[in-house]
Write a sequence for this structure.
């Protein structure tokens, strides 16, 4: 399974940044499908988090140990 990892920063404080992990669930989760579906998912996220700005993004494998915590 792949996830979309977006690096976001507060608009009011550009030095206050964090990574947000969005799990991609699709019919055939591949790196290519994650990259293709990434932009609409980021648009949804930023629409519900207007105080943040997206700086960069990438797709990666889900770290199951991190997800279980």
């Amino acid at each position: 399974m792949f996830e979309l990892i977006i690096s976001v920063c507060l608009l009011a404080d550009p030095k206050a940044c964090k990574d947000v992990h969005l799990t991609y669930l699709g019919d055939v989760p591949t790196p290519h499908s994650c990259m293709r579906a990434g932009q609409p998912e980021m648009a949804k996220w930023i629409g519900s988090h207007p105080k943040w700005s997206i700086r960069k993004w990438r797709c990666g494998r889900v770290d199951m140990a991190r997800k279980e915590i």
Notes: Residues 2-59 form one domain. The chain has a mean pLDDT of 83. The first strand starts at residue 2 and ends at 10.
